[in-house]
Amino acid sequence: MSETVVDLKQLREMLHHFDTLHIAFQDDEYPYIVPMNFGIGDDKDKIVLYIYTPREGKMTRLIKENPHVGIQAETLYEYFCKPDKTVSNSYSSIIGKGIVEPVSHESYDEAMESILTHCGYETYPYNKDYIDTCYIYKIILNQVTGKYHFKGENISN
User: Fold this and answer.
1) Tens-digit pLDDT profile for residues 4-13
2) Structural contact between residues 28 and 57, judged by C-beta atoms closer than 8 angstroms
3) DSSP conformation class of 115
4) Taking the model in full, what pTM does it have?
């Protein structure tokens, strides 16, 4: 049985284990979903995520038209068989809703370092000229929930 997580500290810890953030933008009749690299802010009162996009393109246009987004991320650890001949899995996941806001140019370094750290490149000397060709945004989550399920000692779960 899965467990629900609403504690911000625990949700932030879960985010550190996810490689990719899926972001759903409003695009006419259907959502436009994009897998992205991301960084995690250190705000204690809310969850803030950082992303970057080219200055031109569909994602940039959609953010300008409607900054409300949905996010989702997950890690699937393993599948396993249960005694009743069904299959289950161990996983952790998070879903949320939030608002995308531009990061001030003065805060680009902090946001980019957050993204690089999350991707495992905390000391990487990134190309600052390239970043000047991008927009960096923060997603401030106003609703967020996590779930997890792990194979326990009792494999009937």
Assistant:
1) 999 999 999 9
2) no
3) H
4) 0.90
